[in-house]
């Protein structure tokens, strides 16, 4: 399975104002130029994708929503020509490098990773978590069992969204922990001070992946976190959260849920944040940021359009691999 295949087809963006589209970003520029060149510009923006990438894969004709008709060949050429002018883009997929440091340098240069995020990402070498494919490419890679390790820019985005919660001593739940890479990144934040009781739980429902994540920790020299209990890698259904270590200051979900599992909201601490992709398998999905304030009130916003594998039961997932 190629890294570009696992997530299914690209989809259209909704054009919703809540959607994340930084000015000067590739989607914003492409949308402006595609409109300028299109013989019949669609109204309301509903026909243009506004994602920064397809989980790290370059934007293609489908992502630009340009169909193969002679009348809009010019539109397609104009838009694709723009892809060849690197200086005006800050595209996530352009962050690939030849080494872990180069990858992080590029994420940082493209303003995807803050100082704290980049130092965490430097401390975990992605090659220790990628089984097949180029670990330093800014794209997802297959890890077997119908799953993938997410693109580095998505991990960087999620870490940035949770940065305020990721203080030394915090409690973190990583649902769908797969390779353990993001779980290790969370641990590097919350264990930064020896005397604080931070803990990170990675919960994964495929036992072979949990076992692989334990091996990956060892390859990356992080087994001490497992030995001293700072990190727990467990097998279970992440839709139910993980009550023994709740409540959590930060919860990350690495697979798209049809709706937000109530257990995750319940297990979120006051002042905590949940980042979760929500939407149907292969359909319109968005990354939601859900906050619980000090009084227990819950608010929600949409950060960006995304494509993730489904948060589902193991049987369904293994059927798709
Ligand atoms: N965050 C990980 C893996 C992302 S892929 C990484 O980047 O390496 C999504 C993961 O969610 C897969 O490993 C998949 O097996 C897992 N998953 C899907 N449904 C799940 C469920 N109900 N409970 C726990 N894990 C689940």
Could you characterize the architecture of this molecule?
It contains eleven helices and nine strands. The chain is α/β, with parallel strands linked by helices and 321 residues long. A seven-stranded mixed sheet has the order 5-4-3-6-7-8-9. A two-stranded antiparallel ribbon has the order 1-2. The N terminus is likely disordered. The longest helix has 13 residues. Strand 3, helix 7 and strand 4 form a beta-alpha-beta unit.
Key structural traits:
321 residues, alpha/beta, seven-stranded mixed β-sheet, two-stranded antiparallel ribbon, 11 helices, 9 strands, 18% strand, globular, disordered N terminus, binds S-adenosyl-L-homocysteine
> Terminal Cα separation, in Å?
8 Å
- Associated small molecules: S-adenosyl-L-homocysteine
Q: Give the strand content.
A: 15-25%
Broad structural category: alpha/beta
Blueprint of the fold:
Layout: H1 26-37, H2 61-64, H3 73-83, H4 100-109, H5 115-123, E1 141-144, E2 147-149, H6 152-162, E3 171-175, H7 181-190, E4 199-204, H8 207-219, H9 223-227, E5 231-235, E6 248-253, H10 262-266, E7 268-278, E8 285-292, E9 298-306, H11 314-319
Parallel strand pairs: 3-4, 3-6, 4-5, 6-7
Antiparallel strand pairs: 1-2, 7-8, 8-9
Helix pairs in contact: 1-3, 4-5, 5-7
The protein binds S-adenosyl-L-homocysteine.
S-adenosyl-L-homocysteine binds next to strand 2, helix 7 and strand 4.
Question: Concise description?
Answer:
With 321 residues, the chain is α/β, with parallel strands linked by helices. It is 30% helix and 18% strand.
């Amino acid at each position: 399975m190629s890294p570009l295949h696992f997530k299914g087809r690209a989809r259209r963006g909704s054009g919703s104002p809540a959607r994340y589209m930084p000015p000067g970003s590739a989607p914003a520029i492409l949308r402006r130029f595609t409109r300028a060149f299109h013989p019949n510009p669609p109204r309301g923006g509903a026909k243009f994708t506004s994602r920064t990438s397809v989980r790290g894969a370059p934007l293609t004709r489908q992502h630009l929503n340009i169909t193969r008709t002679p009348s809009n060949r010019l539109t397609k050429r104009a838009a694709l020509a723009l892809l060849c002018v690197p200086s005006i883009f800050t595209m996530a997929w352009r962050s690939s490098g030849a080494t872990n440091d180069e990858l992080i340098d590029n994420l940082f240069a493209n303003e995807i990773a803050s100082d704290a995020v980049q130092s965490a990402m430097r401390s975990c070498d992605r090659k220790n978590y990628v089984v097949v494919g180029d670990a330093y490419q800014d794209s997802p890679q297959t890890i077997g069992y119908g799953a993938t390790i997410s693109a580095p820019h998505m991990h960087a985005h999620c870490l940035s969204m949770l940065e305020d919660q990721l203080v030394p001593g915090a409690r973190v739940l990583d649902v769908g922990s797969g390779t353990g890479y993001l779980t290790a990144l969370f641990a590097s934040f919350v264990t930064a001070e020896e005397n604080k009781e931070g803990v990170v739980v990675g919960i994964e429902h495929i036992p072979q992946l949990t076992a692989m994540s334990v091996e990956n920790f060892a390859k990356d020299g992080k087994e001490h976190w497992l030995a001293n209990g700072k990190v727990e890698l467990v097998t279970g259904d992440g839709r139910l959260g993980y009550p023994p270590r709740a409540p959590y200051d930060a919860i990350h979900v690495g697979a798209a849920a049809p709706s937000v599992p109530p257990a995750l909201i319940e297990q979120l601490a006051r002042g905590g944040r949940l980042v979760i992709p929500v939407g149907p398998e292969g359909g319109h999905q968005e990354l939601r940021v859900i906050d619980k304030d000090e009084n227990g009130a819950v608010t929600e916003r949409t950060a960006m359009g995304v494509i993730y594998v489904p948060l589902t039961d193991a049987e369904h997932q293994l059927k798709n691999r």
